[in-house]
User: What shape does this take?
Amino acid sequence: MTTLRIGLLGTGPWARGVHAPALAAHPGVELTGIWGRRAEAAAALAQAHDSRPYGTPEELFADCDALAFALPPTVQGPLAVRAADVGRHLLLDKPVATSVPEARALAEATERAGVASVVFFTARFGREEGAWIAAQAALGGWFTAHADWLSPVFSDGATSPYAHSPWRRDKGALWDLGPHALSVLLPVLGDAESVTAARGPADTVLLTMRHSSGAASSATVGLTAPPAAAGVGVTLRGAAGVTALPHRQHGPEAAYHHAVDALLAAVGSGLPNACDVHFGLRVTEILAAAEQTLTPLMPLPS
Assistant: This one.
């Protein structure tokens, strides 16, 4: 296979700004077509990238080798199962699902069909961030870690295109930004053996974890941070000293290009990628366990 025929499902801001342009520009890919829940949006996005709109997901499945998803997780999961069932490889967005049964059903569907899968975790596929994560995982000896993933999407006066995302308003930062933090912490510190979560302001959540390496970590995630306080940071402390996740030098489109590379490699080799649907399932399991520990804020006695 010299060129992978990929169809895109989704027409929102992430699809318009990242998925569609990256797929259209990738030399190893043919952007076969686009399906969206709004036909007019699919037509406009397809025209912008010299592709064609499709009326149903199944029609798009029939003309593709693989499907790229830019959809809410509750929509992505069932459609991805249908795509896997007809033998299509999957380039998924995070989280793969917001319930463990849906994520497990998707993982089982890829196993039955023997298809390749990659989940797009932006930091894992960023050039600088990915190299740093791999280097720290190889080094080992980490004692503690802390991650901040704070965004002003829902803060007063925010103009983010994601401010009107129903699933983000419903599920909050735990499910939108939590996967990013886990995608960095887990490969460096090992699987989470235990997790707890505490509520902060608005949708902000503080996660604490113990990892299989024995290290402890924490992560603060929020979509309602004041703009002046927003940002991403990960700090590791261990025998080698202190190190921090490098700042991204390129936009998410470059990282998505590398995720497409990873899918092409998995399809060509038959070997699973570290960020496949099974890793996506594990992230969902950890977040679901954390969500179970959340309780309403209780004021302390004065």
